[in-house]
Design goal:
The protein is mainly beta. It has one domain. It has a seven-stranded antiparallel beta sheet, with no helix packed on it. A hairpin with a 2-residue loop joins strand 4 and strand 5.
């Protein structure tokens, strides 16, 4: 089991020298938008159902599949890729959420989409 732990941070410029987001070949020859969980360097709460994770210069929206306690108040999260080392848009993983005073909770999330360059800049 591979779990990447990410602490809330807004230092996205420090990781701009990271390797570019990997692309995997899809069924119809299209490149899938993917990232390695080990290269996620920060996250930001979006709302009660989603967070944004930052990997290199890219960012991805993860949305809860069902209820995810304290996703918008998390101080630290971990991503369990459920066996692989990368996640692509459409894939599911377990998000481990640790809030200020509580024990960690697990919830299932789906990689909803990659943010556009303009959306990443606006963050």
């Amino acid at each position: 089991m591979r779990v990447a732990i990410i602490t809330a941070s807004f230092l996205t410029l420090a990781a701009s020298a990271c390797a570019p987001t990997p692309g995997l070949e899809g069924a119809e020859g299209q490149t899938r938008q993917c990232f390695f969980s080990s290269q996620v360097h920060s996250f930001s709460g979006q709302d009660r159902e989603s967070i944004i994770v930052h990997s290199g210069r890219a960012a991805y929206e993860l949305t809860a599949v069902g209820f995810c306690s304290d996703i918008d108040w998390a101080h630290q999260v971990g991503i369990d890729t459920l066996g692989g080392s990368s996640l692509c848009v459409g894939d599911q993983a377990d998000l481990i959420v640790r809030s200020a005073g509580g024990r960690p909770d697990r919830c299932r999330v789906r990689v909803a989409r990659a943010l556009t360059e303009a959306e990443v800049e606006a963050l």
